[in-house]
Amino acid sequence: MDFSNPISNLFGKSPIRPLQEHMSLVVSCAKQLEPFFDAVITDKWDRRQRSL
């Protein structure tokens, strides 16, 4: 988004979109932790490797 208004140039680009993308990545990674920890607790080494 290109701003032509000098007042708008003071604020720059909105950080919302990159933050939303980062949040989605974090959620995706966090969802993989539960099966991993379940495999660790139950000592299922083959399942741990697949969950990585």
List strands and helices in order, with pairings.
Layout: H1 6-11, H2 16-41, H3 45-51
Helix pairs in contact: 2-3
Report on this model:
The structure is a single chain. With 52 residues, this protein is an all-alpha fold. The protein has a domain at 28-52. Helices cover 75% and strands 0% of the residues. The chain is built from three helices and no strands. Helix 2 (16-41) runs antiparallel to helix 3. The longest helix is centred in the middle third of the chain and has 26 residues, at 16-41. The protein is rod-shaped, with a radius of gyration of 20 Å. The model has no long low-confidence stretch (mean pLDDT 81).
Quick structural summary:
The chain is mainly α. The protein contains 3 helices and no strands.
Question: Top keywords for this entry?
Answer:
52 residues; mainly alpha; 75% helix
What is the typical, i.e. mean, pLDDT? 81
What is the number of E strands? Answer: 0
Structural class assignment:
mainly alpha
Low-pLDDT runs:
none
Kindly state the percentage of residues in helix: over 70%
Termini gap:
38 Å
Order of secondary-structure elements: HHH
Question: What Rg, in angstroms, do the CA atoms define?
Answer: 20 Å
Strand content: under 5%
Largest sheet: none
